[in-house]
Amino acid sequence: MPITTEDTLRWLKQYAQVLHEQRDYLTQLDSAIGDADHGFNMDRGFKAVSEKLAGMAGMDIGSILKTVGTTLVSTVGGASGPLYGTAFLRAGVATSGKQELYAADVVNLLTVFVEGIKARGKAQTGEKTMLDALVPALEAAKMAEAKKLDLAQLLRLSSAAAEEGVKQTIPMLATKGRASYLGERSIGHQDPGATSSWLLLKTLADTGEGVFS
25, 62, 189, 207: which sits with the fewest CB atoms below 10 Å from its CB? Predict the structure, then answer.
């Protein structure tokens, strides 16, 4: 079964709820190596997204994701707004006009999502950023598609790879963003952006449990 427009709206609504529940945790992570605002900013941004979901009911998936992107750019402070906003805008372009997403579409969506963040943040993996969760997730999705696994399995494997990527940020030295100012003091802390990225994919996998298989 594919991801439908209704599934996309459910995913975004649930992610907004997850961010609200995890706001303090994400802020705690960010307080160690950033400006202590990641949880607050993400919660505020997706609260704004959530308030617009009812009006997105008749949209195709690409238009939904573009609306998410523009909303995040205008409401999320710090680096997260431009990064997530760019990623969702590119994902919207990649899924323009689509009412359903299959495995290949999800891989393509993740590909442009990652490319958008790389372009906007001028970052690569290994620098203690959200890419350290998203790139492993993309690679896992590609492998799952190559093995012709169903969509639910693809999403679960992608989420698991992102979770492992988050753990790998703990011993990393930050060389990008606010955390890079700390030098070696950034070592030993989990990256908040990687964490919110994993939660995004985990929520999608959870939303599709028993639906996309």
Answer: 25
Instruction: For residue range 39-92, list pLDDT tens digits in order.
Output: 999 999 999 999 999 999 999 999 999 999 999 999 987 788 899 999 999 999
Residue 212 lies inside a defined structural domain of this protein: no
Contacts of 140 (CB under 8 A, 6+ apart): 157, 158, 160, 161
| Domain count along the chain | 1
Cα–Cα distance list, 135 to 34, 45, 62, 75, 113 (Å): 22, 23, 22, 26, 10
DSSP string, 89-157: HHHHHHTTT-SEE-HHHHHHHHHHHHHHHHHHHT--TTSSSTHHHHHHHHHHHHHHHHTT--HHHHHHH
pLDDT tens-digit series, residues 136-175: 999 999 999 999 999 999 999 999 999 999 999 999 887 7
d(CA 207, CA 156): 10
Q: d(Cα 173, Cα 160) in Å, to the nearest integer? A: 23
Q: What is the CATH number of the domain that holds 187?
A: 1.25.40.340
